[in-house]
Design goal:
153 residues, mainly alpha, 5 helices, 59% helix, 0% strand, elongated
Length: 153
Amino acid sequence: MSTQFDTQDREATGQQATRQQGGGPSWFRIWSMVIGTAVAVALIALAVVTLSHSNSGQAAAPSGTPASTSAPAQPTSPVTPVHPSAAVVKLQQELGQLNYYEGPVDGIMGPQTIQAITYLQRDAHLPQTGQMNPATQAALANFLAHGNNQMAG
């Protein structure tokens, strides 16, 4: 009798294990499907946006004419060459005297010159625009005449 009871007990336990493993929906499976679907939708959306941006710069080809993908895109505005300026040369020299500018004195308003103007404006308590204006010019003249005592505390 104990043998029958033991066998029936094992069968009942085995049926419960089977029901738990495959009988009902697993939350892990459900969330895996939801996350997988969301990732797939995001990848498709990214591909569509990328393709639409890469095609928006090209003109539409007339019907029957294949679009040329090997031709480089033409700029919309002509590129103007940068010419050195005597005023910028003087500005670079003056900013260099005050140790704001350490780049080449080439007369071109480049990133180093703009950064030097920004530092001058910061020390003069002016808006840091990186462009010369009357207030920045006055501060430059003042610092050249009297020195920049920003380090003296």
